[in-house]
Amino acid sequence: MQSLDRPQWVTADVRHFDLTTLGKFQVIMADPPWEINQELPYGLMSDNEMRTMNLGALMDNGVIFLWVTARVLELGRELLERWGYLRVDELIWIKTNQLCQLSRRPPAFLG
User: Fold this and answer.
1) Which residues are CB-neighbours of 24 under 8 A, at least 6 positions away?
2) Which reactions is this enzyme annotated as catalysing (predicted)?
């Protein structure tokens, strides 16, 4: 395994980038640009664009952490399977504001 002396970045449109050029990783943390109903300072990807990504090419054996919102929870599960990963657990973060109030209505799956 190669040790990196300094951080490295690749600026690219991941919809058209050959992920195999990056090599293999043991841990991936992914916060995809989900198509959500907010104005964000970066481009978003459609659900179908996510489905066509070859994320499985980045790893032979390892762990992926995939950030999802309530709207894309089922899509995230589908993508993990499509990309060749086995979902073994989930963590749920309930976001609150400074007054410890829910920032938004909790997702239905929390009861």
Assistant:
1) 58, 59, 60
2) an adenosine in mRNA + S-adenosyl-L-methionine = an N(6)-methyladenosine in mRNA + S-adenosyl-L-homocysteine + H(+)
Are the CB atoms for 80 and 66 separated by under 8 Å?
yes
Question: CB-based burial of residue 73 (10 Å sphere; 0-12 exposed, 13-18 middle, 19+ buried)?
Answer: middle
Domain count, the chain: 1
Q: Is residue 10 one of the residues assigned to a domain?
A: no
Asked if residue 9 is part of any domain, the answer here is no
Of 94, 93, 76, the residue nearest 85 (C-alpha): 76
Q: How far is CA 56 from CA 25, 76, 86, 92, in A?
A: 10, 14, 11, 24
- Whose tokens are 């993990």? That residue is 80
Query: What is the reported pTM?
Result: 0.74
Question: What pLDDT, in 10s, does the model give residues 69-111?
Answer: 888 899 999 999 999 999 988 888 777 777 777 666 544 444 3
Amino acid at 58: L
> CA–CA separation, 47 vs 50, rounded Å?
5
